[in-house]
């Protein structure tokens, strides 16, 4: 699994976790056009629960072949 596949896998796990907690997923891998120059980036997950919209960064790493970690 390369790093791009690992990232996609982690985002899928995170989205499913958030859905289970009652969040509605509004979007993923969003690249805002309004961020200037070197500040360009991507919002991994945009989710809503109640009246609150959350912008979520997901980090996924493999410590070894048996342990997968991700942080929301």
End-to-end gap: 21 Å
The proportion of residues in beta strands is 35-45%
Strand order across the biggest sheet?
A: 1-2-3
Percentage of residues assigned to helices: 25-40%
What's the order of the H and E elements?
Answer: HEEEEE
Enumerate the spans where pLDDT stays under 50 for 5 or more consecutive residues: none
Main sheet record: 3 strands, antiparallel
| Gyration radius over CA | 14 Å
Structural class: alpha+beta
Q: Quick one: how many beta strands? A: 5
Indicate the mean pLDDT.
83
Q: Which of globular, elongated, flat, extended, rod-shaped describes the shape?
A: flat
Number of H- or I-type helical stretches:
1
Structure description:
- By secondary structure, the chain is an alpha+beta fold.
- The protein is 25% helix and 42% strand.
- The protein contains 1 helix and 5 strands; from the N terminus they run αβββββ.
- It has one helix spanning 3-20, and strands at residues 24-30, 43-49, 52-56, 59-64, 67-71.
- A 3-stranded antiparallel β-sheet has the order 1-2-3, covered by helices on one side.
- Strand 2 (43-49) and strand 3 form a beta hairpin.
- The longest helix is centred in the N-terminal third of the chain and has 18 residues, at 3-20.
- The radius of gyration is 14 Å and the shape is flat.
- The model has no long low-confidence stretch (mean pLDDT 83).
């Amino acid at each position: 699994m390369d790093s791009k596949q690992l990232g996609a896998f982690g985002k899928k796990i995170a989205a499913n976790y958030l859905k289970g907690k009652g969040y509605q997923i509004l979007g993923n891998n969003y690249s805002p056009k309004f961020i200037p120059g070197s500040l360009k980036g991507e919002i991994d997950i945009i989710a809503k629960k109640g009246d609150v919209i959350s912008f979520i960064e997901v980090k996924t790493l493999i410590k070894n072949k048996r342990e997968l970690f991700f942080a929301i």
